[in-house]
């Protein structure tokens, strides 16, 4: 068994690991984008209600103030969720980068083994030709 065969199995696992990390990264990016969109929507609602004209009713003003307060709380909570998804996105991005680097290192190692195997095969072939030539011409080649 050559040195390359066990590396092929490891390479398969590394590719699967990188693919899983890429899927996790894509999912984290999608979650982050959705949270950004929700924050933008909430901020839009807040701006809209803050700038809406006030009516004269005391009841209406009290309800409006409570609603704006809840909306501001929702915006703040959404900002926190956005920060959490941003952190998760950074972790996923780092994991994907590390998985990709692992795969690339393994590929370079495999390429080195392949070159070594090719050199060994060429050397064996040349030795065979030298031996054949030496026996055909009646002497050993130095």
Number of helices: 2
Could you report the average pLDDT, rounded to the nearest whole number? 88
Major sheet characteristics: none
Helicity range: over 70%
Description:
There is one protein chain. Helix content is 89%, strand content 0%. The protein has 142 residues and is mainly alpha-helical. The mean pLDDT is 88.
Search tags:
single chain; 142 residues; mainly alpha; 2 helices; rod-shaped
List the helices and strands and how they pair.
Blueprint: H1 4-51, H2 58-136
Compact summary:
With 142 residues, this protein is mainly α. Helices cover 89% and strands 0% of the residues.
